[in-house]
Specification:
InterPro entries: GalNAc-T, Glyco_trans_2-like, Nucleotide-diphossugar_trans, Ricin_B-like_lectins, Ricin_B_lectin. Belongs to the glycosyltransferase 2 family. GalNAc-T subfamily. The protein is α+β, with helices and mostly antiparallel strands. The chain folds into 2 domains: 309 residues, Spore Coat Polysaccharide Biosynthesis Protein SpsA, Chain A, CATH 3.90.550.10; 143 residues, Trefoil (Acidic Fibroblast Growth Factor, subunit A) (Trefoil), CATH 2.80.10.50. 24% of the residues lie in helices and 27% in strands. It is elongated.
Length: 474
């Protein structure tokens, strides 16, 4: 446990003189030359030589010319404690990091991305807590590098959280944390896998899950594992590392990867670490039922010696549980059948995000239709597709406003929907004065001022929780 000290400012803080040395592991894949070199020079220039034993660059099978022989020559000409390892095939960040960790020789491992810039004196705030407790995992506050100007932008920092699709978010620091704003504070979920960890503790946890594909889920697997297996994660406000925005990077991000890779990784995390609560993840996306996790024997062997996920939620991530309460509850789900013409149901038409949608012939089973016609309204009171990540949105406020598919944000507004079971109207927006309507002459789905006399504005769900819907409207 990291004890509270004082309100001493970061620039006035002194650290122990016998801090452990580190091996810094930086993985990259097709990174921009200027970005990678900025990262490398930043780490070397702003890290005390007494603390830096080595930097290990791990190339995840890049195919950019500079990242091959020219990079070897550049490193040899400018650095004495930097070496390069290369993957034999493109395998993803976690596999590349494991290669670097196996080669590391220092007592503390620091994992970094290849598109960062460290702040002044960034390392001692991470090392001192680890020296005092070798089961403490330390993360810097991750600032931003503007994608357009490449300027450094500071952020406040908060406690990592997640919803039941494993979407990462941040919640405010606890009131007791803000009494000592420069002191490390507990974090249930590390933000972006920029962290320092005692090497022996990393290997006791068996490192990263070697069954992961490509990218996705690493921060959740590591965070659950650390907390549940007698470790702790802290963020250090006096350690600042800035991270370049995703849409400027050449390296692929999670959203560009095939969804099946990410879902497979998430399912592995859930099956091993989430226990009873895994059902809240699986019920939100029917695709999980068709995904195989592969062998989980090694991961479950580690898990068998650790605390429960319920303990984690109640003791560590209690604010996450309050913000995103686990629930199988649905107000309504299934197909949405039009009462003006009962042959037609709301359908995504297999279209992508930001596209308009329409209607098509209803599936035979309205309670359990095919994916394109499956919709649900849950506790967030939005209208979600079968994968529970895409919502029906109304971006325009005009007559015959078209409805579109949009990534769910859970904040209501244009994505707020309530089903009025008495009138059969699907009301949109916080005031509920506009309703979903099918235009019979062109089969468009639009939103207009609610009118109980319009049959094409009335809808029937495949399944409804009548009592809950009636209570919602009272």
């Amino acid at each position: 446990m990291v004890e509270r000290k004082s309100k001493v400012k970061c620039e006035d803080r002194e650290y122990a003189g016998n801090l452990p040395r580190v091996s810094i592991i930086i993985t990259f894949f097709n990174e921009y030359k200027s970005v990678l070199l900025r990262t490398l020079h930043s780490v070397v220039n702003r890290t005390s030589p007494e603390l830096l034993k080595e930097i290990i660059l791990v190339d995840d099978f890049s195919d950019t010319d500079f990242l091959d022989k020219p990079l070897n020559e550049y490193v040899a000409a400018h650095f004495t404690n930097v070496r390069i390892l290369r993957m034999l095939k493109h395998s993803g960040r976690s596999h590349a990091r494991m290669l670097g960790a196996r080669s590391a020789t220092a007592p503390v491992l620091v994992f970094m991305d290849s598109h960062i810039e460290v702040g002044d004196n960034w390392l001692p705030p991470l090392l001192e807590p680890i020296m005092l407790n070798n089961r403490t995992v330390m993360c810097p506050i991750i600032d931003r590098i503007n994608e357009q100007t490449l300027r450094y932008q500071k952020v406040v920092g908060g406690r990592g959280a997640f919803d039941w699709n494993l979407n990462y978010s941040e919640l405010p620091r606890l009131p007791e944390d803000m009494k000592y704003p420069s002191e490390p504070f507990k974090n249930p979920i590390m933000k972006g896998e920029l962290f320092a960890i005692f090497s022996k503790f990393f290997w006791k946890l068996k490192g990263y899950d070697n069954g992961f594909n490509e990218y996705g889920g690493e921060q959740f697997e590591l965070s659950f594992k650390i907390w549940m297996c007698d470790g702790e994660i802290y963020d250090a406000p006096c350690s600042r590392v800035a991270h370049i925005e995703a849409n400027y990077r050449k390296e692929d991000d999670a959203e560009s990867k095939p969804q099946k890779f990410i879902l497979r990784n998430y399912k592995r995390v859930a099956e091993v670490w989430m226990g009873y609560y895994k059902k809240y993840l699986f019920q939100n996306n029917i695709k999980y039922s068709r995904i195989s996790t592969g062998d989980l024997t090694k991961q479950k062997a580690v898990r068998s010696k650790c605390k429960s996920f319920e303990w984690y939620l109640d003791t560590v991530a209690f604010d996450t549980k309050k913000k995103y309460p686990p629930s199988l509850f649905k107000y309504a789900e299934g197909a949405i059948q039009n009462m003006g013409n009962s042959n037609f149901c709301v359908d995504t038409l297999s279209r992508q995000v930001r596209s308009t949608i329409g209607v098509s012939s209803c599936a035979e089973n309205l309670a359990s239709p095919h994916e394109q016609q499956f919709w649900s309204i849950g506790w967030t009171q939005d209208l979600r597709t079968s994968d529970d990540e895409i919502c029906l949105d109304v971006p325009m406020r005009k007559i015959n406003a078209r409805v579109k598919l949009w990534k769910c944000h859970g904040q209501g507004g244009n994505q707020h929907w309530i089903y009025d079971i008495k009138t059969k109207l699907l009301r949109n927006g916080s005031h509920g004065k506009r309703c979903l309507e099918m235009l019979p002459h062109n089969m468009h789905l639009v939103v207009n001022k609610c009118n109980e006399t319009k049959q094409y504005m009335k809808w029937i769900f495949g399944f409804t929780n009548r009592t809950a819907l009636e209570n919602m409207l009272t």
